[in-house]
Amino acid sequence: MRRPVKPESAANVYCAKLKVDLVENGLEYVVDAYTEYDVEAGCHYIVGRYRYSADGVMNTGIWEAKLDMHFSDGAYDIFLAYFVNRKAFLMANYYWQEQAAENNIHPQAFKAWFDSKKVNASEMWKSNKELV
To answer: If we measure between CA atoms, which residue out of 53, 57, 46 comes closest to residue 10?
Structure first.
């Protein structure tokens, strides 16, 4: 037996909540949030979509995540976390997205990988001093 479907108005409320939460997390310009109706499933979906650089071309890849209206309230938090956990990747420039792709770095693991590439000031000073 299928769980009851939340009505379209609930989908619109959750979509609005997602848009507000994206603004609070600084993702309003990189993640599109909207609702759509799936005829086959017979319910509304909340959709989050972002673009990324793929195959050497900037902003050509599109990734969508959908949450159907059979979900519990806790599922919404997981849906939002999906985008928040990829924030570093979504906010990265074209060069770093391409570097991550070449190194097979998953968008969720991007922040840890990117942080490992940083060189602190004392290490830079040491390397420059050795060159002199």
So the answer is: 46
